[in-house]
Specification:
mainly alpha, two-stranded antiparallel sheet, 2 strands, elongated
């Protein structure tokens, strides 16, 4: 352990800087889990009790009530146990079904910001399958675009491109070619998008 790690471990991580977990946000339980897992990755020697002692301040609203009741029933538990309980409670079948439907219904159209759309859809894919490979994620995202646009972006990107690279490429195709300048909404006809 380095000197700076020892210095950092003199006090628990500031829970006020953690993502808040209300039980209502679409992904806030996953953000909290990823954040805490990241703490253990960044400082492997961090004591588990510092994390679990700080959970009180991370839970808000409905999630706080659930956490308090679970703590009363089960007593003091370690982070892997709490992690499992959070996933069991909030990453349930209904939540998964909702993410699957949302992913299926959200097709890319020229009126959507490519960066926001890719990030939103990528979060849904990761929620559905946390172990999805980059190549498969990209394939599924590209398949949600109109045919010509899908092909144009796919030809310009490597199979394992980052979300940023794909978003940037889509933005370039939209701006620099006529492919991405058509609005393909419900009418089925292609009209120039006046905003581009």
């Amino acid at each position: 352990m380095t000197y700076s790690e020892k210095e950092n471990l003199k006090q628990p991580p500031e829970a006020s800087s953690w993502p808040m977990f209300s039980g209502i946000g679409e992904y806030d339980h996953m953000e909290l889990i990823d954040y805490i897992d990241g703490l253990f990755t960044d400082v492997p020697s961090i004591p588990d009790y510092w994390i679990t002692a700080s959970l009180n301040t991370a839970f808000k609203g409905h999630a706080s009530i659930w956490y308090t009741e679970m703590k009363e029933i089960h007593g003091r538990r370690n982070w892997p146990w709490w992690r499992g309980q959070i996933i069991q409670k909030y990453r349930n079948d209904t939540w998964m079904w909702q993410k699957t439907l949302s992913f299926g219904n959200d097709r890319y159209t020229v009126d959507k910001d490519p960066y926001d759309w890719y990030l939103r859809q990528s979060k849904r894919l990761i929620a559905i399958d946390p172990h999805i490979k980059t190549e498969m994620r990209n394939h599924k995202l590209l398949a949600k675009q109109p045919g010509d646009l899908e092909h144009a972006v796919e030809c310009r990107c490597a199979k394992e491109s980052t979300l940023d690279e794909i978003s940037t490429t889509l933005q370039e195709v939209r701006i620099r070619t006529s492919i991405g300048r058509y609005n393909t909404h419900s009418t089925g006809d292609k009209r120039e998008n006046p905003t581009l």
